[in-house]
Amino acid sequence: MQEILEQSALINPNLKINAVLTMCSTNPIVGEKNDSIEYLDDFPNIKLANSVIGDRKVYRDSTNQGMGVTEMLSNTSASAKRARAEINSLIKELL
């Protein structure tokens, strides 16, 4: 991956690289998210977003309905509310 990043920087020296952790387990016992964070620490030119997208069924449900989770206002489940909050947080962070 480092080689690809270096080659990309040669093509575009102003390139900014961001990463977002997605499909992270919502179970706090699972440590995969921390493993990913540690892995990305080896790439100082990648800025890791503070926002994290969990692995939630509501994301799959919204796709099946041809919508994003922020459009599924009729779904008021706790999981749907958390998913909408995750996406809104990411949008605010990127903009």
The helix tally amounts to 4
**Quaternary organisation:** single chain
Report the uncertain regions: none
* Beginning-to-end CA distance, first to last residue: 26 Å
- Which word captures the global form? globular
Main sheet properties: 2 strands, parallel
Radius of gyration: 16 Å
Average pLDDT level: 90
| N-to-C SSE string, H for helix and E for strand | HEHEHH
Topology, number of strands: 2
Strand content: 15-25%
Instruction: Tell me roughly what share of residues is in helical segments.
Output: 40-55%
Structural class: alpha+beta
Q: Strands of the largest sheet, in order across it?
A: 1-2
Tags for this model:
95 residues, alpha+beta, 4 helices
Description:
With 95 residues, this protein is an alpha+beta fold. It contains 4 helices and 2 strands; from the N terminus they run αβαβαα. The protein has helices at 2-11, 32-40, 57-64, 78-94; strands spanning 17-24, 46-54. Strands 1-2 form a two-stranded parallel ribbon. Strand 1 (17-24), helix 2 (32-40) and strand 2 (46-54) form a beta-alpha-beta unit. The longest helix is centred in the C-terminal third of the chain and has 17 residues, at 78-94. It is globular, with a radius of gyration of 16 Å. It starts with a helix and ends with a helix.
Task: Lay out the secondary structure.
Layout: H1 2-11, E1 17-24, H2 32-40, E2 46-54, H3 57-64, H4 78-94
Parallel strand pairs: 1-2
Short description:
This protein is an alpha+beta fold and 95 residues long. It contains four helices and two strands. A two-stranded parallel ribbon has the order 1-2.
